[in-house]
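Give me structure tokens for this 269-residue protein.
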Amino acid sequence: MEFKTNYISPDIKLSVFEDELFKTEVLFDHHMLVWFISGETKIIQAGASYVFNAGDIFLIPRNQVITVINYPKDGQPHKAVAMHLTVERLRDFYAKPQVKASAGVTDKIYSFKNHPLLESCFSSLLPYFDLKEKYPENLASLKITEAIMILRTIDKNVDGILANFETPGKIDLAKFMESHFMFNLPLEKFGYLSGRSLSTFNRDFRKTFHVTPQKWLTKKRLELAHYQLTAHAKKPVDVYLEVGFEDLSHFSFAFKKHFGYIPTSLSRI
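Here you go.
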């Protein structure tokens, strides 16, 4: 697998991926603003999915668990520039007297397809990735501030995301797990997102579901895969990543152990 990341500052990077696909579950500590140069990205949230291609610009809110599947496309590698909009930077920005944040917080991914102002901001960074010397930190800070100001200009509701500095509070565990079981995260992350320590998460989980988290997660992922294979006539290779498995062979083994037959047999029915 060929995956290269070039930083011009801790918060601005260029990523290039040239293999068949790259899949990961992500829980960002900071908001991520991404300009997509080439390739294709599929992002899966609880209850929503998105496909982004060359030219797309999108904002991923922090503390949202997502599955990211990156593909090269049309002979071009998967290539993107990303900015981390850190909580520390945003606190400083919104602390200025002339800046007022609007209300309303949402967990959706914001899309700014081919927006000329954002595209100009991002494209101006490209020459700096080829420099031998270090990119001045004050210039990087100015570019990120420029991006924040553009976002606020083109979408009046984005303050509801950027100016929200809260950490996840304790929420209904059953409801949360039913909508997030397909994400292959460590149990510590499930606990954090539901407002619990790991020990409290494990205790509350057993009390709610009467089984260990791993057994419950495996069963739910296999049932979702079975539904996708039968109701939507999908192939195992198109399903296993989206339901939370890391490789096809492990998925096929677990599927046969649970249902008594291999997943490819469903495509022949």
